Amino acid sequence: MSAAADSVPFADNTLGDEEIAAVGLVLRSRWLSAGPVTAAFEDEFAAALGVPQAVAVSSGTAALHLAVLALDLQPGDEVIMPSLSFVAGAAVVALHGGQPVFADSCSADDLTVDPAEVTAKITGRTRAIVAMHYGGFAADVGTLRDVARRAGIALIEDAAHAPVVRHQAGMLGTVGDIGCFSFFATKNLTTGEGGMVVARDNELLARIRAMRSHCTTASTWLRHQSGTSGYDVTGLGLNYRPSEITGALGRIQLGKLTGDRMRRTQIAARYRFGLAEVAGLRLPFLARDEDAAHHLFVILLPAAVPRADFMSRLRAHGVPTSVHYPPTHLLSYYRDRFPSSAPLPVLASVTDRLVSLPMHARLTADQVDRVIEATVQTVSDLASGRS
Asked: Which domains does the chain have, with CATH numbers?
């Protein structure tokens, strides 16, 4: 059958009239680049995390890039990071001549980076560790923080999937030395494009704030307010400023985050109940009962079920799926430029079985049940060889 016209949306957001009104106010102000609305969003996001300051940027990749710049990464320096992540973290390291060192996941039940793997890969050239909170579930940041401190290196938290999530070690993004967030179109808190950076060290965060805007001594907004045009440049930086529009969206979205989290938690519970008895199907993070952002809902298909066939059949039922992510060490550029003989056995066992099902706060109970029904039927058909 062809894809249904009423396909279940794979991703969606909670944007509505409040965001439209907030953007309208910005447009009527006629000031669009980073200014007072951006500053207010920074203050409110910092307060939600329980930290003094935060720096808004133009994307999650910009946040990671500024983290690397602030640490003054040199050619040949190594940064250990999960291979099961979006490519942005590896890219910003490689762009500066650094060496991404890819680490395995903990297990098929916990797809976050394995602290034991990270520890084993530390060398005299290691400058930092990246911990990515996969799917909105916390990596073992308490252990990774201790590992980083013993080695005298930095811990960067990639919290793109986990905005304002409490963990026993602290709010995610605030446990390590630098925390990086993304507000991309599909994220739980979205501004279309955008991101945020926090840091434990005020001087480090001040350096990040300066580099966000070419290291100029006075921002465009401050020069506009004061009526002066003079400024100096005290270092190397980039234009990673967000807009006032993203700030306006972010403030409203931050207020909706608790409701979004509650709905995602309910959806995850419904998925888990409906899929629990499917033979051979594995649900990562099933045993994790702490706070989680539930940015993704991922499954591991039975080994006998071809992923491409599964995804094609679900699409025909009007259920789109995706893969998060192709492991970075297997992508052609990184495989060729940063080859490693070290095996990543967990990823080798799960890579071809990993599928993301629709997950967002606008999913209805009927839509979730439709995804469950299509998944159960398709796994059964493919496992038994039925066409």
From this structure: 17-253 (3.40.640.10), 258-384 (3.90.1150.10)
